[in-house]
Every structure is written in structure tokens, then in C-alpha cells.
Prior knowledge:
Elements: E1 13-17, H1 37-54, E2 59-63, H2 70-83, H3 98-110, H4 116-132
Parallel strand pairs: 1-2
Amino acid sequence: MASFQDSKKPPTATTVFFGANDAALAGRTSERQHVPVEEYNEYLRRIVHHLKECSSTILVVPITPPPVDEEGRLQCAKTYLIKGTGTGTGTGTGTGTYREHICVWWKAMEQPERTNEMSGVYASQCVELARELGLPSIRGLAGNNSSG
């Protein structure tokens, strides 16, 4: 497969949208998706630099992680718990016993695995990095997360 480096005309612009899963809270049901904010920032920086190395004229526009529908996620956990229809164990494999499914949804009700507060931390890092690199950025669903 050819890359855009091999193209006669490289792309004019690209967006980079990372952080929604990275901002999952450590120690919760989606911990396996968590990436520490310092690593998120470094990975985002590397991605931008790589794209600029591939095409010095490309416009790179980072997009912040979106806000979290905290109430909707809680309601989803309650629904799965009440109906007993959870299909995952939090491992991404879709396997496990019925008891494991219920355990995951119960934990999600007690301690949400994502919050607007943490999404806001990652969003702030994204905006700050874009500013530092002289890039525009897009705030995912503007202003709905608590990053300011």
C-alpha cells in the first residue's frame, strides 16, 4: 500500500482525534484503555511531528476528546445491570460468565470509568500542545467538558 509520502500531491490537511479512550480512569472497569496524560501528550506530539515530516505543508488540526455523558453512561450501566444483558467483561473479548458481566456493570455504576473532569484534563493538554506547536485545534463538542 502506498503512503501519502509516495503521492504526487500530499493531503492539504488532516485531523488528529485521540484521547476519548485514553482518558478512561485508572483503577476502573476501562483501565486497560487508560493512557497517562503525560504519555498522551507525548504521543500526540509525536504524531503531529511525524505528519509534518511526511509533508511540511500539511495542516494538522488536533481535536480534543469529547465530553462524557456521565448520566447516560450511568443509565446504561443500570440498564444492563437490571436487564442482565451486559455482553462484555471489560476485557474487550466479549467472553466471561454472566456473573462477571454483572460484576463489571455493577462496578461501572459505583465508580464511573470516565468523567468530564478527566476528559477536560486531556482536552486542555491537546489545546495547549496545539498552541505550543502553532496549530489550530478543535474542541470536541465545544465547551461541554470541564477543561475551561
